[in-house]
Amino acid sequence: MQTKLLSRFLSVLLVLALTAGLVPAAWAAGGVPSESGRDSSDWSLFPSARVDGVTLDRDSLSLEVGSHETLHATVSPSSAFAQDLSWYSSNTGVAEVSNGRVTALSPGEADITVTTDDGGFTASCHVIVTAAVPVTGVRLDRTELTLTKDGESATLKAMVSPPDAANQNVFWTVDDSGVISVDQSGKVTAVGNGVGTVTVTTADGGFTAYCTVRVQFPSAPPTLSLNKTSLSLTTGSSETLSATTAPEGTRVSWSSSNSKVASVDQSGKVTAVGTGTATITAIPEGGAGATCAVTVSDPSYLTLSKTELSVMFGKTSSLSVSNLPDGASVSWSADEKNIVSLSPSGTGNANCTVKGVTAGKSVTVTAVVTDRRGNRLAAPACTVTVTAASAPDITSSVASGGSVTFDESKFNSACTEVYGNKLNYVTFTLPSSSRGTLYYNYSNGTYDQKVSESTKYYYGGGVFKSALSKVSFVAEPDYSGKVTISYSAVDTSGYSYTGAVAITVSEPTGSIEFSGAQNEVIPFDAGDFNALSKEITGYGLDYVHFTLPSSGKGTLYYRYDNGDYDKKVSSSAAYYYDDSPYLEDVSFVPARNWSGTLTISFTARDTKRNTFSGTIEITVSRTADDIMYSVDRNGSVAFDAGDFNSFSKSATGSSLDYVEFTLPSSNKGTLYYNYDDGDYDEKVSSSKRYYRNQRPYLENITFVPARNYTGTVSIPFQGSSADSDSFSGTIRVTVGGGDSGDIEYSAAVNSPITLSSDDFNDYCKDETGKSLSYVQFTLPATSRGILYYGYDDGDYDKKVSASTEYFLSKSPYLEQVTFVPAKNYTGTVIIDFTGESTGGKAFSGSLLLSFATVKDPGVIYYTTDAQEVTFRSSDFSSACDKRGGAGLASVVFQLPPESAGRLYYNYGSPTSYGGLVDDDTAYEVDGSPSISRISFVPKAGFSGTVTIAYTGTDESGSTYTGYVQIGVTPSSSSSYFTDMGRYSWAAESVDYLYENGITTGVGATTYHPDGLITRGDFVLMLSRAFRFSVSGGDNFKDVPAESYYAQAISSAKALGIAQGGIDGRFNPSASLTREDAMVLLQRTLNRTGHGIDDASASYLNRFSDGKSVSSYAQGSVAALVQAGVIQGDDAGNLNPKGSLTRAEMAVILHRVLTL
């Protein structure tokens, strides 16, 4: 026994020892702990922890489509360590399962199975899915409802059929929200009186049911109103009044105050019984009534305003029926058609406009009056006679000795006013030959024949018919007054009438005036002749013939220029306003040293072939320069009578007698008589004469400037010579060596100058302390130019008048005054002016207008190696100054070809600038936008000279064309890196990127051009170039947070530029393929507002390996090929899969940044 026990014990020990030896082997065989900390080795060593089954709480299940239910699984044993389960459906089109939740999708059957992850034990549930029960209808618990209080409510109940329908949802609406409202629980609330309908609609099927709701609030006492408060009837007529009650349908009783005048029945019908007045009353039951006053008259009072009427053909007159009763109407008619036309108007057509249609006939017009029921009351009549209209006079005007051609359209218009027909022909009664003559086909003194009284002149002319349009009247040269020419006419219907042509013959109105100085050329202004033509005949000028002046006084030349000329003007030649030889090129050249006034006669023809005559008054004054003095500030200067005597001799040819002064502004200084170091006898008076040889002596006058004043003072004066010839001039005193103090402008030869009202306002403030009210000008000699008002490129409203005040703030406006210099005039024109401030204080001054011949501007030169060139305003000002005209104000640029580069405004970097320069903006020297903020950026790879034209405008308003030439010479070596020797083709681009802070190289002096660009470095350069402004969030998992390109890649990822692979990695240290570089570039352009769309893959076909571009990159590569960024290698390949070198990267990025 003991031996057996010992044997058993030893056996157990052996088993335990073997078991202990197997455990380490089991761990070593691969039982590594998982991420959850559990051992995944064979669990057979621990049988108590193994799953041995699974069960479901349901083995079958019935569901309707759209419903769901959850199955619960139980793993056994409950102490099993692995409880994980998997669910699936045998027919996911019928039912789907997720963590035990079963959802019915469509009718059918499916098995839902659960499986344990440990051991693979299963359990199933059979699911049958049936269709949901549809809705077949709906009804309400009531179909009618009455509410009697504002805000009262009641709830309706909707019952969906069948009761077990799957979708029991309904929604509620009303048809009149002003009567009732309803919420989505069926609660109906009263809003206002009326009837409304509540509709309930099922969500499934849209079935409806209705309830009619009446809302009746307590009503106020009934009210009544009548459609009329007064009524006029004739005996025997009637009219029904209409009563409106509230509430509607209230019973109404009717009565009359005098049934012998008017009776009324209970429908409101009023019948006129006898003449007089009565009151009809209507009263609503339980309420207050309303009345209508009725007047009954006798229809025999219905009369026409006239029984006989005469109306001219084409004219109108009127008829009317008086005493028309209310509601009555009139029907107008004529007993014969086409004699008159009738146009009824007014209440009941009581009025009628009668127009004559056929002259020489009579017709009876009848007015039939009926009451409102159609009863005929009266039919008064009128006899209308249509008479021929008188032809209106045809008016015209012509100057003495001039001609006027008849306008046949005026004759035709007169004809249509008589009978309404077109004109056929006319015959004339000839006027007195002492007044003028009628000619046929007259032109500048020649004609076919005189008009005959027996000849018919036809409208429109015709074969073998004399044309009315070729008849002209020529006035006698010495006659002025009225001429009446009678004529007889026949229209196209054969009707005849008479008329008259009334012609006003006037003497030449006004004359044209020109002026100049001795030995000064006086050009003629064709605009003056054109204006005179319009004034006399009403039409513009065609040409002029001149009567030549005496050669002792001067000569008329054609195209005279400083002694040279084409020819002398001929009295037989015509000088045209709009054709050659041009009237504008005619000038008068006074005989040497001749002065005085000359009259030149001329004849002219307008554009309608009317002729007229006139005179030219030319005044040539003796040459006399201004009298000039200068004085120190706070000093004084005495006038020299000898200066004035010399002036008189120059102006008149004889010695001086006396002078009168226009006093200067006291702000500038004062004229004194017998002045001596602050003492004086008196101030000079503008009403006194100061003599050369008697008291008060001119020699004793002194000018004393105002304290501390500097500038030039202009003092106008008038004088008389010993021979009693008058003259005028100006004293100009320069005080303290200061500037002129006058208003000055300058311009190129033949350039108009428009005055600035601001300049005169500032001058006025300086002189008076107040703003400007107006100025008046002393007119310059026309040989130097003319002041115009409303001038615009040759056209103008009128010439400036010396007697007209030109205002700052009202018409006529000072700012619309323009000086137009005489043709080719050079020099300075001085125009004196006087003015008054808003404070009523007078002042005076001088306007200095300088005209000079300008030259071409200088060319502006710049050079660059490939970087931007910023313009300097001073360069443009210097170029403008070389013209010799006014200073530069602004320029407008013509844009350079894009193949050379672009002009930028406020350029900071390739991706930071204010905008592109456009070709319609004026860039200013001193203002904004400024010339000095414009930069030219050459296009990558461009070499050569680019010429940029511009239009300059100087301070006088004159424009000119100038040029900027920029020489672009890219360097073949780098200015910063020593290892670019074999990569000279990229040196320009590398330096461009370096200078713009995009690349820094790989050392102090090395760039490593043959090195491959990594993905991370390329994104870093894109970030620097395009200034990624988005702060990145998360980054790719393979981008170290501390790396130098981490922030750039993070921002690029946030912008959608860097997108990485499907594994969430970006591979920043990997070399970059050419096609990936193009994708990153295009995304960068699109995300930073420099959009470039995908291009057609056909652009890749020009390269031998174009088809090898990956599909995701084709659009990007094609777009950059189209833009000229990618050009392929020397062999015509794109090499899209090849890695990009740092040199290639620099060239590509340079091209992109200068697109």
Automatic annotation (TrEMBL):
Keyword ATP-binding attached: no
UniProt KW keywords: Repeat, Signal
Gene3D superfamilies recorded: 2.60.40.1080
Residue ranges, compositional bias (Low complexity): 236-245
Residues in the signal sequence: 1-28
Keyword Repeat assigned: yes
Region (Disordered): 236-258
Limits of the SLH domain: 973-1036, 1037-1095, 1100-1155
Domain of life: Bacteria
Protein name, UniProt field: S-layer family protein
